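Encode chain A's predicted structure.
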Amino acid sequence: MVCIRCIMVVKSELDKLNIPYTSVELGQADIPGAVSIMQQAKFSAALLHSGLELMDDKKSVLIEKIKNVIIEAVHYTEEPLIVNFSVYLSQKLHHDYTYLANLFSEVQGTTIEKFVIAHKIERVKELLVYDELSLTEIADLMDYSSVAYLSTQFKKVTGLTPSHFKKLKQKRRSMLEDM
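Encoded structure for chain A:
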């Protein structure tokens, strides 16, 4: 689950099946009692119908939790982290970072660092398209040490500089308006 609507869908389906829960968060629902096999099958089918998936494999669940923590930190948190991301992830998930990093790499075929960078660059693209912040403000917001470092990483991931990306978006928008 990566959005508020996903949480709403999960809560709604749990309510429809009369399955009591204590909390539903991104990627996790805490259910205090036992769930019958029939309820679990119906719940799983309802989630699939909504484009979601029920996971009960502990490694898969942990991978999803890692992804959700990263997505939440990059896309939905405005304040910069006080600690290193590895420390933040370890504290948030109550596991050693080395274990999390090795598991993530083994299952996903990429590193946590690359996954974070990819999401940060996607967020930077969104902010560039909105055109409300300067590149300096975006670098600060996204916790880059400098505009130069942001630009280097942006170009490495997208093949474009941030300013060139912004110009392409503006050119595309003006072409659409001329139609």
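The chain has two domains: 1-54, 57-179.
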